[in-house]
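Sequence, please.
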């Protein structure tokens, strides 16, 4: 399971406390806090969310509930639900950045905009890359596209999200 340092958790806790005016009150939190996440249970982001929830629950003395909301393009279903919540610090989201950097710009009618959220902190990076078996006749992505065009063949790719592989 992913682990956050005690210092990182303390900073995150402080940032959560001061994320909005109502949450900055001394009595926050006076009831359970919900952490929404964009994936089904067991994924990398879910494990990170559960670790943050456990540490916050210990530090805050209130239950911190993880709510999994998979679906949409790069977490957009969770983002739509989060945007509809009251900005009182009791419902927060942990998501891959694509729901906020990609979907509002390229998905018509996404149901939310960047201005609907208060961004608190970056918890980690999920790096991506283009890979292939070593025996392929190309060394670069451009070579792969040229090969596919010349051979009249398609290339297969995989990405994080609904419909995990496509031709």
């Amino acid at each position: 399971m992913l682990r956050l340092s005690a210092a990182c958790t303390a900073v995150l806790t402080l940032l959560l406390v001061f994320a909005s005016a109502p949450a900055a009150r001394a009595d926050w939190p006076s009831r359970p806090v919900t952490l929404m996440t964009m994936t089904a249970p067991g994924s990398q982001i879910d494990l990170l969310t559960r670790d943050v929830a456990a540490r916050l629950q210990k530090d805050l003395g209130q239950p911190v509930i993880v709510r999994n909301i998979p679906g949409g393009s790069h977490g957009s279903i969770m983002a739509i639900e989060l945007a509809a919540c009251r900005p009182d610090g009791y419902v927060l989201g942990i998501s891959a950045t694509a729901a906020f950097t990609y979907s509002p710009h390229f998905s018509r009618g996404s149901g939310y905009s960047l201005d609907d959220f208060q961004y608190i902190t970056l918890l980690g990076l999920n790096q991506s890359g283009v890979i292939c078996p070593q025996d392929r006749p190309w060394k670069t992505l451009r070579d792969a596209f040229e090969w596919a065009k010349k051979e009249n063949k398609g290339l297969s790719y995989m990405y994080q999200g609904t419909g995990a592989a496509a031709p």
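The helical segments are 6-17, 44-60, 76-83, 98-101, 103-106, 141-151.
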